[in-house]
Specification:
about 375 residues; 9-stranded mixed beta sheet
């Protein structure tokens, strides 16, 4: 009687698939990319955050690999989570409702990834998971935007909890005392140092003395770019220096790359990733030039709805490629909070002429409540909450 030959190919493929999955789980130091999600040298936090959608858009229990940054904006009447009048942490420049913005639809847009659902931000859950920990945002006024947003989202869940609020330069903090959670903001727009010397104010592209203030955190969220484009009277330095070479100026993308590389080396040398999670907030776009979305006569002023779809006509800003290049060279696990494209779609979400204590139009920052709440929802998702 002839013996049947066992079908070994499917078994081998199953074993191979299992070994590949095991490799991903056991080797978090390798770069992971799935569906366009950019996670650099890090455990795939975002890849296990999404829950599979059914045909009707509802989530199943199955957790899948999902690019949480690829999607579109939809109206959700359950938003916003808080009102600016109920949050004591919002600066006038972000308080669009208080300073006369007449429309409210911009407050009710929710981000919907294409392939999965993401959890709604739960302030009480965040507090319980982060009890006794320290969080720090490091960067420019976009870090300020996100810091105030996170504090408001948490405060909305526990409005009667005891808090302490300290505003100083360069370090500010909000502590939720009943949970021993402190959320810091360290203002440093270039991440690298500006030093007063005999020739004037020098932007040191290879120096980070301020970094000693960033250690000992459980979660770090960095950001930089907007100030690298400033010129004239709004530029807070006179010269740039790298090593012994001092120059009056250089290509700003080149300078950004040099400065960000210095930051990357600092992180690799000073952060213990087994104790500290590190995020980089990708480039936050501006909407001063309507030609970027094929409406050359417009800016953010008067805009009331996002762009439809999931792509931006002018594509990503060149600085985003610099961020990707630097993060890809690092040894420390760094998670890219890839908010650029989803924010490019929100031409409606800026203060424009409705921010307090400002003149002219602001198409750089974002109203609160507003878009930065989604950034924090994505941070919450990526943390596996």
């Amino acid at each position: 009687m002839a013996l049947s030959t066992p079908n070994v190919v499917p078994s081998f493929l199953s074993l191979l698939s299992f070994l590949l999955l095991l490799l991903l789980l056991l080797c978090p130091g390798q770069a992971v990319a799935d569906d366009g999600l950019r996670v650099y040298n890090a455990t795939a936090l975002g890849l296990r955050a999404g829950r599979k959608k059914t045909g009707g858009g509802k989530s199943k229990g199955e957790v899948i690999a999902c690019n949480i940054f690829q999607g579109s904006w939809t109206v959700d009447s359950s938003y916003p989570i808080y009102e600016s009048s109920g949050c004591p942490f919002i600066d006038p420049e972000f308080d669009c409702q208080k300073y006369g913005r007449p429309d409210r639809l911009y407050l009710q847009y929710a981000w919907k990834p294409d392939a999965c659902d993401i959890p709604r931000f739960d302030g009480a859950n965040f507090l319980n998971k982060m009890r006794g920990k320290k969080v720090m945002f490091v960067g420019d006024s976009l870090s300020l935007n996100m810091w105030e947003s996170l504090s408001c989202l948490i405060h909305a869940a526990v409005p009667d909890t005891r808090t302490s609020f300290v505003r100083r330069q360069p370090l500010s903090s909000i502590t939720f005392q009943d949970y021993d959670l402190t959320i810091f903001l360290y203002r440093t727009p270039y991440l690298v140092d500006i030093v007063q010397e005999s020739v004037g104010r020098v932007l040191k592209l290879d120096s980070i003395e301020a970094g000693k203030m960033w250690t000992g955190m459980d979660l770090l969220v960095f950001n930089s770019w907007h100030w690298w484009t400033h010129t004239g009277n709004s530029q807070p330095w006179d010269y740039m220096q790298e090593g012994s070479q001092i120059v009056k100026d250089m290509d700003r993308l080149d300078a950004f790359y040099k400065g960000l590389t210095t930051w990357a080396r600092w992180v690799d040398s000073n952060i213990d990733f087994s104790k500290t999670k590190v995020f980089f907030q990708d480039i936050s776009p501006t909407h001063y030039q309507g030609q970027d979305w094929n409406q050359p006569k417009k800016s953010c002023v008067g805009e009331q709805v996002p762009l439809s779809g999931s792509t931006y006509p002018s594509g990503p800003p060149p600085a985003a490629a610099v961020v990707s290049r630097v993060l890809n060279s690092m040894q420390t696990p760094v998670y890219l909070l890839d908010i650029t494209t989803l924010s490019q779609l929100r031409k409606d979400a800026h203060p424009s002429v409705y921010g307090g204590n400002q003149s002219g139009k602001d198409c750089s920052h974002w109203c609160l409540p507003g878009l930065p709440d989604t950034w924090n929802q994505l941070l919450y998702t990526a943390l596996g909450m």
